[in-house]
Each structure stands twice: as C-alpha cells, then as structure tokens.
Amino acid sequence: MRESFWWRRGTPKHKLHYRKEVEIRTTLQELLLYFIFLINLCILTFGTFMEGPLLEGLYWDSWYNNKKLYNLNNSSRIYYENILLGVPRVRQLKVRNNTCKVYSSFQSLMSECYDRYTPANEDLSEFGLKQDTEWKYSTPSANSPWHWGFVGVYRNGGYIFTLSRSKSETKSKFINLRLHSWITRGTRVIFIDFSLYNANVNLFCIIRLVAEFPATGGILTSWQFYSVKLLRYISLYDYFIASCEITFCILLIVFTIQEAKKMKEFKSAYFRSIWNWLELLLWLLCVVAIFFNSYCNTQIFLLLGQMLKSTEKYSDFYFLAYWHIYYNNIIAITIYFAWIKIFKFISFNKTMSQLSSTLSRCIKDIVGFAIMFFIIFFAYAQLGFLVFGSQVDDFSTFQNSIFAQFRMVLGDFNFAGIQQANRILGPIYFITFIFFVFFVLLNMFLAIINDTYSEVKADYSIGRRPDFELGKMIKKVRQIIF
Predict the structure, then answer these.
(1) CA-CA-CA-CA dihedral for 323, 324, 328, 334, to nearest 10
(2) What is the DSSP string of 38-62?
C-alpha cells in the first residue's frame, strides 16, 4: 500500500497527476498564445519594393508625345508618377598622390601613384577651380552611414556637387566640371543620390548609383534602391498594422512576465534548457526591434518635415532608409527564430518528435563529420583560389571559392571556365572534388542521419518514446467542442 501511494521521492500519485495536467494545460495555453504572437509578427513583416532611373529621367517635363505635363507645382517627376524630392547630389571621394610606392626601376616612367581608397589615403585638399563645394572637401557628419562597395568601404563627405532643378542649367554645370577635370586619376568612387515619392502607393524610394574606380583601372558600377514607407498610419490597413504593433507590445509584456516567473521558479535550472535560451534570444530581438522602430519613427517625425520644405537643396533621405533597412533586418531575424520556436511544441506529434530525437541523438556524429568535411572543403577552396583566382571570377577570392564550391555541390558550376584557366589542374580539381565531396562525404552525412533515424524508429516501435499527453489533451478539447 505504501509503494502504491508514494512515487518518485515521496510525491503522492494524485498530486503528481494533477501537476501533469496543470503543466499540459499551461503548455497548451502557451502554444495558443504563441500562435497569436507569430501571426501578428508575420503581418508586421509585409513589405514591397520599387525601382527608378537616372539622369535623363530626372527631368520629365513632357509626355511621350512631347505635350507638356500637367501642373508640376514647382516639382520634378520621374515616370510621371514619382515626385523628385529636393535635387539630386553627385559626390566623389579621392585619394592623394604618392600614397603607394613605385619600384625604383619604374620611377622614371611613373611619377604618380594612387593607391586604393582608405580613410588614411583620402585626399582632403582643394583642387581645380577651388570654388564651391564641388572643388572643396566637405567633412562627413557623425551619424552618416558608410557605403560598402565592391572594392572598398567609403565614408560620407567628399567633394559634393548639387544639381539644379533646371535641366539646361544642370547640363551646363556638367560640361563645366568635365572641362576642368573634376574627375581625376585620384578619383576612387562617385555617388549619385536622389529620392522619390510616389503618392499612389505612399512609398519613398531612396536611390544611390555608384561608380567605383579601382586602383587597377576601369570602372565598376552598382546601385541601391531602398523603397520605404516613411509616412505611416494613413489608410485603414495602416491603422490595422498599428493595432498589430500594439498587440505585439502587449504580447511581449506577457511573455516577459511569463519568463520572469519561470526564472524565479526554476532559478539556475532555467538556463539548462536550450529552449529557454531561445526564449531569451527572441525576447531580446523583440526589444531591439521595438527600439529600432521607435527610433525610426522619431527621426522621421523630426526630420521629414524639414526635408520636404527644402525643395532647392538635396534632401538626405538615405539616413532614414539606412535605419529602416536595419529595422527590417532585425524583424527578419526575429521572425526566423520565432518560427524555429515552434519546434518546442512538437511533442504532441509522433513524426516531428522522431525528427527532433534523430537530430539530438546524432549531433555528436554530425559535429565530428563536419570537422572532417570542412578540412577537405577548405583545402579544395584554397586550391581553387590559387589556381583559378586570376582568371575565373568565381574563384577571385577565397570567400568566392567557398561559395563556388557550395554551388558545385548543388550542380551549378562553370567547368568550361575552370578548364580554360588550367587545362591540366582544372579537370583534376573538378573530378576529384566531385568524387570526394559529392559521392563520398555527402553520402556519409546521409548515412549518419539514416542510421540514427532507424535507431529512433526502432526504439519507438518497442515502446520507448516520450509521452504524447499534450496530443491527448488536444483530442479531448476537440471532442468537447465538436
């Protein structure tokens, strides 16, 4: 009788059963509340994008049949529907002469040497006509973001040329810059920045066109189009989004209280569960997302009105777009971990439980295999970089070699380029890489997963499985409702 009454360190059976029911109900409530949170978060991450053209397109004053546009109200249009905010800006960064050393045998042939762009090599002196901002260096502001290009990372500031609202006046200024050699051998990058607003879709498009001049010669072009919604809470859908944001904050407060209670109850044991660490990471990301959103809205409220008033000056919306993109990145990472957290609630499903048991049981074997895999993988990446790097763009850097090999595993490769770069080592590299990595190592990885899954499935077949009591509770709820 005593053994039937007491169980597991002196806990009565009826109390233990009651605790299990309470735990299952709490988990079910948490699951339902979390789904509401996840759906709300998915709604908040919806967005759209658009693009726009440059210089000849900056001054649209007539229709396709050369008839005059409708009343522009002292504004410029692009594609008829997009209002040009302020005026565009052209900016360049230069490096000083003699920033690199010329070998003694060639000093008689080359008296000038311009190194690649770095802040230490940047030219800050006046040049040319030494008039206006296009010939004088403008210091960058403290809060201006840097630009990450193909061959360098560039800061703000430089030699700035602001365009006019008149197309003819802007053209004459460009001719004047060309005649007085505004672009020199020391020029390393030119930025063309302007911003648009489309009232039809209530979107701002912040555009940056970039031309980089590497030290090797030539020119590399790139572009950035940031479509952001700076004017918020206008339509009914915007107010619906606002209600979702309020719900998001309320749910975050509820989750904070729940996690605080768990930490107080379990103390140090709370941090032994990986799911609790995921909870803390998700909570931290949500707090950071709220901070970014609040900061963006505050800056928009303070700066947007001033920028829209200055129609004859360049309106720097790039700063607002930069922080808005960072906010979108934080939201993207947050929703990724929010979806991953669903695995916490898969104990009520037998198939998903087998999947999680398989991954947790073979993690040590996978780590050991990964060490062996990446030793061989990086060895081939170094080989490809050294052999083909000077002729094949996919292997131009060590990082590119790594990504090129991942693409080769997936069947995307340029064998003709490899063979043309080296007719002997090219085919040998390709055949041996495919054999060892694709046919041997990847099949070893699949064998590890397959064997572990067979063991887990065998354990489940003889009854060694976790309790699916949460699933039973869901079935009971369904029977009560229906």
Answers:
(1) 60
(2) HHHHHHHT---------GGGG-B-B
CA angle, corner 35, sides to 34 and 39, nearest 5? 120
pLDDT of residue 92: 92
Residue 392, exposed/middle/buried by CB under 10 A (0-12, 13-18, 19+)?
buried
Amino acid at residue number 348: F
pLDDT digits (tens, 9 = 90+) for 262-292: 888 888 888 888 788 888 898 898 898 888 8
Scan for tokens 């800056």, then name that residue: 299
Series of mean pLDDT values for 10-residue runs along the chain (482 residues): 42 48 56 60 39 41 54 60 82 89 77 86 87 84 82 89 79 82 88 86 86 85 85 80 85 87 84 84 89 82 73 78 83 86 70 76 88 92 90 88 90 86 90 90 89 83 59 57 56
Q: Residue 10: what are its φ and ψ, rounded to 5°?
A: 80, 15
Judged by DSSP in three states, 83 sits in strand
Residue from 359, 369, 230 nearest 302 by CA: 230
CB-based contacts of 356, cutoff 8 Å, min separation 6: 343, 346
Q: What single string gives the DSSP state of each residue in 112-163?
A: -------TTTB--S--TT--HHHHS-BPPPTTPPPEE-SS-EE-S-BEEEEP
Burial 230-257 (b: 16+ CB within 10 A, else e): beeeeeeeeeebeebbebbeebbeebee
> Quick one: residue 323, left, alpha or beta (phi over 0 = left, psi -120 to 50 = alpha)?
alpha
Least Cα distance to 311 among 84, 134, 132, 57 occurs for 84
Q: How far apart are CA 371 and CA 179, in angstroms?
A: 60
User: Does residue 44 contact residue 331 with C-beta atoms inside 8 Å?
Assistant: yes
Predicted pLDDT of residue 29: 61
User: Which two structure tokens, joined as six digits, stand for 273?
Assistant: 């569960």
- Map tokens 């030699």 to a residue: 159
What 3-state class would DSSP assign to 467? coil
Which of 193, 246, 240 shows the shortest CA–CA distance to 85?
A: 193
pTM of the model: 0.69
Report the candidate in 424, 429, 390 with the shortest Cα–Cα distance to residue 413: 429
